[in-house]
Amino acid sequence: MKFVSDIRLLLLGLWLGAALFFIGVAQAAFSVLSQRELAGAIVNRTLSILNFSGMAIAVLVLLLSVIVAKGSNKFLLWADRVLIVFVAVSCAVGQFVIGLWLAAIRAQMGGKPIDEFAADDPLRIQFNLLHEYSVWVLAAGMITGLIAFFVIANRRAAAPKPASVEPYNFDKEFKI
Fold it and tell me: What CA–CA distance (Å, rounded) separates 148 from 143?
């Protein structure tokens, strides 16, 4: 079962690495591209890939947890499952709730760039607020995924404790 735990850690680590890479891509896109709309399109597409892969990886990690369940600490097993479900939910909320709201607001903007709207325009305020929610949901998913990674790694490394040893039993030590 160590192999299955290693696969679970690998999958979760891949998603966490992709999420960190996404942060770099988003910052680079906005700093390099002259049109913020193009940078936003790149970030939106990359975030969709990250969210869908997060949901798929979470499902795989959950399914693999059934295989690892034998002989493991039940509390840590369920803690890791709850954390993985939270990662999947955060990816789903980011993609299907916040992402769709952002798309609806963009449609209401009529194709105009966001920067053409005044800072006090209700659509821009709503867009900025949803963008902030998106950042917080992704950050929560990443932090939860990192905690799940350490729970899985700790549970895998925990060896079963030997039977209790009597500290004052000298019979075994002095047998000839």
Answer: 9
